Each structure stands twice: as structure tokens, then as C-alpha cells.
């Protein structure tokens, strides 16, 4: 890779925090950011999962136990990372939970638990990270949204509500912090071959058939498809990109 490409897409010297980074999309994004040169911290609730991920990914990835619903600790977690590495350049709000139920079966507790992770947890970390990014006059915050935020989908009302709210955060926060050199964007993955996807679809072959029939590329995405999109939104190549949602969906959202 020549110097121009390294300057545009390389992340050497950057420090990134990825929530839910021990598996699925989070693990793929950690692998891609580390390959681009970043020091990556993956956060999650399960120590064993984090340790296994770090052993797989190497010395440039470290794990930190953190449940994003414990919003009172958000500032402490960000400060711990900054104290250890001297900075925080990239925050990827990826941690997620699913809730697949018919609308009449979704309880207030179901809705609250999904919002606590996708919305309130992500908001708290973003709020805590912004002052450090502002002090450095640079930063990239990435939220992971979903097809269910942009298309009507059945049996995922709590999840779609949370993921649609995330897109609202991207638009509003990006406008507030752009002058400080901080960019805020979303990645909207299509149907990606991850454990969470299989949890939602393995017992529903008709849904799988419908998904592939609605995806012009006629296949599921790979986790690294999202990982490389995250690399792009993290570095200089996307320096003039903020407040947007990048579809990584094989064309699913074109609504043909």
C-alpha cells in the first residue's frame, strides 16, 4: 500500500473502542481496524469471550469488561481507555440484543431492555467520549443501525424502534460536534451471516427465502463487509463524511 493509501485508510496511532466487540460484527470490525493499524479495545460482558477474541486478534486488541446498560460507568470506561492509551479517536457503538416477538406480545420490559442497550447505552458512551475527542479536535463515532430502521419488518418492533432512534442520534449529534472535528455516522448492515442473524432466522426458512429474494446480490453479507466499512468511516478517507448512514446491504434497501 502506497503512502497516499496509508494516509487515507490507515489507522496507525488511532485508538478505538468497540462495544460488543467479542463476537459477530464487533469482532469483525475489531479485526479490520487492527489490520489498518489501530489499537483496539473491545468491550463486552463476558470475560471469556473477550479473552478468546484478544487471543485470536493479537496484541493490538485488548478487552475490557463492560455492560453498556450500566450507563453510570460510561465516563469511567472512557477515562480508563484514555488514561491507558493517551487518547480515544474512534467509538463504535455496536453492542446489541434482539427481541423477536409479535407486536401484541412485546412487553414494556422487552422494549426497555432493547432501548437500554441500543439507545441509552450508546448515548452514554458517546456523551462521555465527545469531550476527549473535542480536546484533540478529531474523532469518529459510528453507530450500528439495521435494515429494520429503514424498511418495514415484522416481529421486531422493539428492535426497529431502537435502531431507528439511532439514526436520529446520528443526524442530531453530528450537527452539534462537526465544528470540533468530530464526525458521527451510522452503518446500516443488511443481512449479515452472524450468530445474531442465525438466532433470528434459523427456525424461519420462509423468512430466509424472503430475505434472499429481496437482496439483489442474492447472498448474505460477511462480517468483514461491515468491518471494512467501519475502517473507511474511521479514518481520513471519510474526512468530509458526517451525519450519514452507510448501507452495507447488497442492495436490499433499494426497495425494488
TrEMBL record:
List the keywords (alphabetical): Oxidoreductase
Read off the SUPFAM superfamilies from this record: NAD(P)-binding Rossmann-fold domains (SSF51735)
Does the keyword Oxidoreductase feature in the UniProt annotation? yes
* Top-rank lineage group of the source organism: Bacteria
Residue ranges constituting the Ketoreductase domain according to the UniProt record: 14-190
PROSITE patterns, from UniProt? Answer: ADH_SHORT
User: Which Pfam families does the record associate with it?
Assistant: adh_short_C2
Q: Which CDD domains match?
A: SDR_c (cd05233)
Q: Which family does it belong to?
A: Belongs to the short-chain dehydrogenases/reductases (SDR) family.
Return the protein name: SDR family NAD(P)-dependent oxidoreductase
Amino acid at each position: 500500500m502506497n503512502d497516499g493509501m496509508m494516509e487515507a485508510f490507515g489507522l496507525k496511532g488511532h485508538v478505538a473502542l468497540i462495544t460488543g466487540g467479542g463476537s459477530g460484527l464487533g469482532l469483525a470490525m475489531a479485526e479490520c481496524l487492527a489490520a489498518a493499524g489501530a489499537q483496539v479495545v473491545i468491550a463486552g460482558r463476558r470475560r471469556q469471550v473477550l479473552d478468546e477474541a484478544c487471543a485470536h486478534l493479537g496484541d493490538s486488541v485488548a478487552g475490557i469488561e463492560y455492560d453498556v446498560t450500566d450507563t453510570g460507568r460510561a465516563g469511567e470506561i472512557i477515562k480508563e481507555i484514555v488514561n491507558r492509551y493517551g487518547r480515544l479517536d474512534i467509538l463504535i457503538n455496536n453492542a446489541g440484543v434482539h427481541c423477536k416477538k409479535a407486536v401484541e406480545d412485546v412487553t414494556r420490559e422487552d422494549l426497555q431492555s432493547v432501548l437500554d442497550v441500543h439507545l441509552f447505552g450508546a448515548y452514554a458512551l458517546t456523551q462521555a467520549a465527545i469531550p476527549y475527542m473535542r480536546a484533540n479536535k478529531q474523532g469518529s463515532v459510528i453507530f450500528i443501525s439495521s435494515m429494520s430502521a429503514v424498511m418495514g419488518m415484522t416481529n421486531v418492533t422493539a428492535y426497529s424502534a431502537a435502531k431507528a432512534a439511532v439514526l436520529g442520534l446520528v443526524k442530531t449529534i453530528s450537527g452539534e460536534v462537526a465544528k470540533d472535528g468530530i464526525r458521527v455516522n451510522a452503518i446500516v448492515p443488511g443481512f449479515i451471516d452472524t450468530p445474531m442473524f442465525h438466532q433470528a432466522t434459523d427456525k424461519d426458512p420462509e423468512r430466509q427465502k424472503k430475505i434472499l429474494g429481496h437482496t439483489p446480490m442474492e447472498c448474505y453479507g460477511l462480517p468483514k463487509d461491515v468491518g471494512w466499512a467501519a475502517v473507511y468511516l474511521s479514518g481520513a478517507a471519510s474526512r468530509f463524511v458526517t451525519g450519514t448512514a452507510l448501507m452495507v446491504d447488497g442492495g436490499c434497501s433499494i426497495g425494488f
